[in-house]
Amino acid sequence: MNRVLLLYPPGKLYQRSEDRAQCNISDSAAVSVHACNDLGYAAAVLRAEGYELLLRDYQTAGASESDALAEIAAFQPDLAVLSTTNSSVLDDLAFLDRMRAAVGKKCVCAVKGAVFYDIDPALLGDLPLSGIDCLIGTEMEFAVSAVAAHYLRHEGALSQVGGILYKQDGVFVKTLFCCGENDLDSLPFPARDLMDNSLYVRPDTGEMMATVQTALGCPSGCIYCLTPVISGKSVRRRRVENVFREIEECYYKYHIRNFFFRADTFTIDEGWAAALCDAIVASPLHGKIAFTANSRAKPLSAALLRKMKDAGCFTVAVGFESGSNETLARIKKGTTVEDNLRAAALIHAAGIPLFGFFMLGFPWETEEMIEETAALIRKTKPDFIEVHIAMPFYGTGLYRECEAAGTLSGSGFGRDVYAPNTVGTRFVPMRKLLRLKKRMLRRFYLRPSYLLRKLLPALRNPTVFANYVRYGLRLAAHMIFRGPRRDCGN
Predict the structure, then answer these.
(1) pLDDT in tens, 357-395
(2) Are the C-beta atoms of 326 and 293 separated by less than 8 Å?
(3) Matching CATH number, 3-174, of 3.40.47.10, 3.40.190.10, 1.10.10.10, 3.40.50.280
(4) Global pTM value
């Protein structure tokens, strides 16, 4: 039986399962790592076809490289599939070199990541890919079966597999890249019996939290986002019944009570989201499970938020991005500052904690525009925030904007929102951007009123209190008190 290894390598924490975010968790202010669903889906598909599997999230488990390599060498994989990010790709490729040496036999190596979506083959020259056989730049769950069948069973032609680059005569050949054509209901549920579910927890309570993919795709055209590029602008939703069966499996089989309903925008189809909430409320799980989800500022209604609260929603995350109407228009967010303020007010009125995401560093931004974003943080009054510096991923409109503005710096491989591949904006250098970002975080999280509002109620629950303290210390260490990273330009 052919053996397939599916892995996140040891090292820093990255949000490897989400092509849109690719977040550097280790350096973030308040973001927590989500379950390795990309590996879980691939494992479920491959297991149904008779492969022997080893699924490992070494990064989240905190495994040492020596322990990881020893386990992999003992398993002796015939195919290794590693999930990478734009930030970690250089380190990940170096790990695969060491892994092949430890295995000591021919092992086909495939690397999956948004970084490879429809990439210009000329850019691949910046990466050490001599030991890599295949690059998967599309949704892995729909490509991994054909990739494994070709390399391990000598079945099928890779030229017919969409969204990949495969090596032929030492040169990578790119197949047709398209998006939005796959039926999510056709997939088996992620193989959670092969995943260490205890690694993925709700940040405040420390309880296990499963990620349930409810939809893919987003009709919005935000120029910094990879979602419309990779998953398409048409939203592919799973049937409510299909999603609810996965929730039931998580609850009854794996004893998981908390969920991240992953969709690029959970609330964008109010009828669908309301139907899922109604299904939960009408079931024996009502009052026994809780969930968090992403939303846009528009569309969003008070009626849907009330349903979400009743069904167990414990946080809504909204990408407000900017307090400048000019910036919101230029990034094609489809919202205004007034829309942002309205959405925040609705979420507060529903009694749901609000996690706000904000961005700065777009090539046209001035310091005055950035101050408008700082003002929006104060006005929306989130419970938690994350502030990112705009990262121009290859293939996005932002990449083209930065290229035209002359603010790009390098290919971007190995960079992220904490050390982007730009020199800053045309008017604000990178080091100044980092200082402004740090000041936003400090002014938000170190307010005495905020600390009292969060910590005093948490005293009633020692676990929640301890987790708040732990996240606070991480915030202080990584995002407030340390200086700008040395590789961030002027």
Answers:
(1) 999 999 999 999 999 999 999 999 999 999 999 989 888
(2) no
(3) 3.40.50.280
(4) 0.92
